[in-house]
Each structure stands twice: as C-alpha cells, then as structure tokens.
Amino acid sequence: MPVKMKTYPFLTLPMALIIARVMTAVLFMAHAVVRIFNGSIPQFGQFMTHQGFPFGEGVVWVITICEIVAGLLLIANRFVRIAATGLFIVAVGGVVLIHRHLGWFVGEHGTGGSEYSVALMVLLLVVAASDGEKFNK
Asked: Residue 4: what pLDDT?
C-alpha cells in the first residue's frame, strides 16, 4: 500500500500518476479542440503540404483525431501505452517540423521552441511506464 508523503505535494505516487495521465491527455486534447473551433485545420494542412506531406489537411485531421481519441483513452485509463505512443509520435513530429526551428524556449527567452513538447514527451514516457502497474489501479 502506498505511503502518503509527509511533505509537499501531499499526494501518493498513484494519485500523482493519475493526475499526470489525465492532465497530459487534457493538454493534447486542448490543441485538437482549439484547432477545430478556431478553424485552423486548413491553414495547418497547407503548412503540412508545403512540408511535403500529400493531402496535408487530411494529415492534420489524423493528428487532430489522434489527439482527441488518445486523450480520451488516457482519461479512461484504457490502452494507455498505445495512446501514449500515438501522442509521443505527434509530439516528435511537432518538434521535427515546427518547434526545433524556433529554438528551445517556448516563452520568456524565445517563442514556440521545443521545451514544452519535450516536457510532454517525458510525461508520456512516465504515463506509458506506469500503465498496468499495481499502484495505478
């Protein structure tokens, strides 16, 4: 049985892993939902076509659906490793195609860099690694 921490953050490891899993899902789903409601899928699709992807807008829809479905799976604690892997691939693609050209920092010292995506990838590794462990049930 997990022992509660006596100091900050006053969470057990299982509680922290649940929060990491759910919040990582929410962060990815937010990107997808905003993309849909802002109507930026065609613009992103043109960017993807310019990067050499055939059917750029279709690729963006696949990314968007992946972010939503994988996010829902993470929240439901189902197929966690598969969902985390899909989102990891999306994050790597974002770094390779967009963020690496903008430097490391997202804010303060830069704009749109890779650090946020790398943090998400680390969270996804933790989430995937914790899937199926007795303390995650």
From this structure: 54
